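Thread: quick sanity check before group meeting

JM: Hey all, I'm pulling together slides for Thursday and realized we never actually wrote out the predicted structure for the chain we discussed last week. Dropping the sequence here so it's in one place. If anyone has concerns about the input, flag it before I start.
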Amino acid sequence: MSAGRFASLLFAALLAGCQTGPVTKSEMDLFDYGPRPARWKETIQAYLKDKLTDANRAVVEFKTEPKILFQRSTGVRTTQYGWAVCVWVNDVDWSGKHEGFYPMTFFIRDEKIVAVNNGPEDFGAIGATYARRQCEQLGAPFAR
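JM (edit): ok, ran it. Output follows.
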């Protein structure tokens, strides 16, 4: 088997690990999401300040306000729950050029970020797949 074919099969298998059916109300009711975060924008901005290439020049668009969201455990992700926010980010590369928007989802409980999908430490096909789906669930489908 060629290396390209193997890589394609491996990628397809990893993405298949992202697939789950719809989350049920009974699954969601098992967890305590806590109160709606009050300082969610500031919390996310503080997180991004330390993670982006140039936080002062990056464009950060808050596409949704916090909404309760549950992420079921799969072969490639653990269970996550909390108040989720969809954010679109356009960071700059090392030469100072904007790279283009990409989606991120943040899970917040007790005013703390407990999980991020497609953040700088999770950037790639799997993180992007989760972030796109979750942004759509939250009411902000990624269309760029």
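AS: nice. Residues 92 and 99 are 6 Å apart (CA to CA). The chain has one domain: 3-138.
JM: adding both to the slides.
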